[in-house]
Amino acid sequence: MANSSYFQNLTNPSPIEFSLSYSGMGLPADLFMEYALLLTNLTGQNNTYCQYFPGGVCIVNQTCETLTSLIPIAFQIQFASNTNVYMNVPLGAFAESTSFGTCNFRVNYLDVQPTANNIMLGGTFFQEFMGIFNNQYEQTF
User: Fold this and answer.
1) 20-24 contacts at long range (C-beta below 8 A, 24 or more positions apart)
2) By three-state DSSP, how is residue 100 classified?
3) pLDDT digits (tens, 9 = 90+) for 74-109
């Protein structure tokens, strides 16, 4: 197991909104542009096409299975202002193979949608992770 990591901070921290009616992960325009540039640098400029319109995604001209160099890539989501409390969300959780032999990443551009300033985590996120909750109930009689 690796004992060091490299993280590229995206510029503006944004609140996260969870929505089962949303498909993948949505990023505000400024964060999407940073993400798209990083993905393009990792996969090659002639190999990646990103759509800069609402709902747009990045498409890599390879199958998802061949993108093994992207396996360790993840979004690190921090909770509140405590940098010791975070969750790594693998980029591969949003990868979708197509019948055209490409890999679409369900990380969407959110420019003009009502929640354009929030990061959206939707159904794809919830399908990849299992939530474990510790509930404490108190009842007085």
Assistant:
1) 20/122, 20/123, 20/126, 21/122, 21/123, 22/120, 22/121, 22/122, 22/123, 23/106, 23/108, 23/122, 23/123, 23/124, 24/57, 24/94, 24/105, 24/106, 24/107, 24/108, 24/122, 24/123, 24/124, 24/125
2) coil
3) 888 877 666 777 888 889 989 999 999 999 999 999
Q: Quick one: which H or E segment has residue 29?
A: helix 29-43
CATH number at residue 59: 2.40.70.10
Query: pTM of the entire structure?
Result: 0.77
Residue 5 covered by a domain: no
* 53: exposed, middle or buried (Cβ count in 10 Å: 0-12, 13-18, 19+): exposed
